[in-house]
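Model it.
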Amino acid sequence: MFTGIIENLGEVKAIKTDHTNIHFTISSSISHELKIDQSVAHNGVCLTVVGLTEDTHTVTAIDETLSKTNLGYLKVGSKINLERCMQMNARLDGHIVQGHVDQTAVCVKREELDGSWEYRFKYDASAGNVTVEKGSACVNGISLTVVNSAVDEFSVFIIPYTFEHTNLHQVEVGDTVNLEFDIIGKYVARLMANK
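Modeled.
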């Protein structure tokens, strides 16, 4: 489990294809603290650490993960949001995040608002996922509050700290992001669909 509060911004140092899998080697200031078999969210995708050096860690994404997330778009030099799993005795500063991306979305608006930024994301609503105003959504692993919600899109406002310390500063109109919808909202939507 995660909180959606990004701990570190890593950089992709190497990408290696192995059959349908891709191994990503990431450099970050927390890589030296990680352990083999540890779960770490990468752009909101829970991946297992499979290799370590002094200042990098390696994770593997299988074909299923690559087909449902934006990890396949990463290149050497790409910035990636990192968060270690939540400790049970810690504060839950964001919201409950599983690290299981529900689907991707496309950025359809990015506007600077004199000190903050508005982003609007459009997604395929046929999967049954929903957002609600003042609810939470996870974008590239970042816990964000939904400002405007429609059937297939939503907006968020970004403060300077989040803009500077996550990879949102690199997201432009047309870019693909990972979405994990609020777990409570997913259960409510499922219950309503089964009535």
